[in-house]
Amino acid sequence: MTQPINQPIRFYHRNAIQEVSGASTTRTVLQYLREDARCTGTKEGCAEGDCGACTVVIGEPDGAGGVAFKAVNACVQFLPTLDGRALFTVEDLRQPDGTLHPVQQALVDCHGSQCGFCTPGFAMSMFALYEKHGHATTGCAGACEKTTPSRQEISNALTGNLCRCTGYRPIIDAAERMFDQAPLAPVNVQALARTLDTLRRDDTFHYEHAGRRFDAPRTVEALAKIKAGKPDVRILAGSTDIGLWVTKQLRDLGDIVYVGQIESFKHVETTDEWIEIGAGVTVERAYAELVKTYPELEETRERFASLPIRNAGTLGGNVANGSPIGDSMPGLIALNARVVLQSVDGTREMALEDLYIAYQKKDMAENEFVAAIRVPTRRAERANLRFRAYKLSKRFDSDISAVYAAFAFIADGDAIREPRLAYGGMAATPKRATHAEAVLADAHWHEATAQAAMLALGQDYAPLTDMRASSDYRLDTAKSLLYRFWLETRPHDPLDKSKLDVRAIELVEAK
């Protein structure tokens, strides 16, 4: 087999095409900026994508002749993933004549900075929002009419940035004020799109350093071939978890194959039966599509990590990782989602819950990878679906769940058909509550039924105690969330409360 030629990493930064060789395959974008490019405005706070001090903006072709701008965390993104993209940092905001960008001027006018350490990250999140509501979404090269986002949209855009000084109000005020400044288009989108087109590779990008390989195939077939030839190769998508293996655990990842350049992985297709989401679709885009059919997932969409993490992380990566506290799996399992696996031998499909065997162990052949996730639509036979998803964490924004619960059933009058209860944070894998489901199956949806199912949860789970919650707290809140589901979906025929406890016990014993 012919050894592929080692190619330099090529990307657009500081108004020029940069070519980088000799850097580690897992060197982070933050390390490159501060130590090599000497762009020290970008800060390191947590090195795990939590605080937002390292926020930068990535520009990549949007498929329609323009450029999509996304705020991401530089501390967990590996430098070779920049190949073919544009990188913007706080140093790019001020104009050559010294004029401040509207983002910067608004922060000054609204006193949005005190110690200043977090300010560059906030500025870049605001810059991405500024571009989203201006010329970047329309493709024009000059200043365009801008639409002002709501205060809630501004807050959502800043979920990945933490500040210990200002209390956030002045920063949110500045994000509103920046649209009142004199219009400014620092990025010539059409010219940038043409530049990025010159960086586009038609075949697999291959980069090597110190005996470690980084391959970025452009087709699923090329990925399957790489995976078949080296089954232990590390598959990299959004780097929002794997990045921490390097920055926090100092792990050697070995050879890496990056799936972020495979266009067919970025498809979302909705038919009468399925919403099919490619493995490379970002969490932000995936949930934007899912909430069109399942608006009950809107809060999950807003609270899934932070916007920079959702901009980088993929739904396929979250599913393939299979963390017991991953926020996507319980909701998808409750909706009876399926996962499509692929290899050189073809594709196969299974129920999502069947993918997880034990902690960090999945029912996958060594040459297989996740290709897509398929979520049933709300077709006629599912028109009476009752569905809710709840996240319990210490912070509302940008926090890992202590317990995540998702519940669904088909309402046949006041009877329960096909109940599906799934939890995260309660076991070594995302797991259905089969005992509680047995209590609910074909029963009437009354408070006694809900209480019986709550009692049965004790047979389904024996959760661990860790830094996020105790075992007792997890089990108690798991029951409480199920009761909340009852309160939100109950029919309007309450039972005699004096009979509830007796009937609950009888139902448990009968099942």
What does this structure look like?
This protein is α+β, with helices and mostly antiparallel strands. Among the domains are: 202 residues, Ubiquitin-like (UB roll); 117 residues, Enolase-like, domain 1, CATH 3.30.390.50. 32% of the residues lie in helices and 21% in strands. The protein contains 17 helices and 20 strands. Strands 2-1-5-3-4 form a five-stranded mixed beta sheet. A five-stranded antiparallel beta sheet has the order 10-11-16-12-13. A four-stranded mixed beta sheet has the order 6-7-9-8, covered by helices on one side. Helix 14 packs antiparallel against helix 15, helix 15 packs antiparallel against helix 16 and helix 15 packs across helix 17. The protein is globular and about 70 Å long. It starts with 8 loop residues before the first strand and ends with a helix. Pfam families: CO_deh_flav_C (PF03450), FAD_binding_5 (PF00941), Fer2 (PF00111), Fer2_2 (PF01799). It comes from Caballeronia ptereochthonis. This is FAD-binding molybdopterin dehydrogenase.
What is the structure about, briefly put?
The protein has helices at residues 29-36, 102-109, 119-132, 151-157, 169-177, 189-199, 220-229, 242-247, 283-293, 298-303, 307-312, 315-321, 328-334, 434-440, 447-460, 471-489, 500-510; strands at residues 9-13, 16-20, 55-61, 67-73, 86-88, 205-209, 212-216, 234-236, 256-258, 268-270, 274-278, 338-343, 346-351, 356-358, 361-362, 369-376, 385-392, 403-412, 415-424, 431-432. By secondary structure, it is α+β, with helices and mostly antiparallel strands.
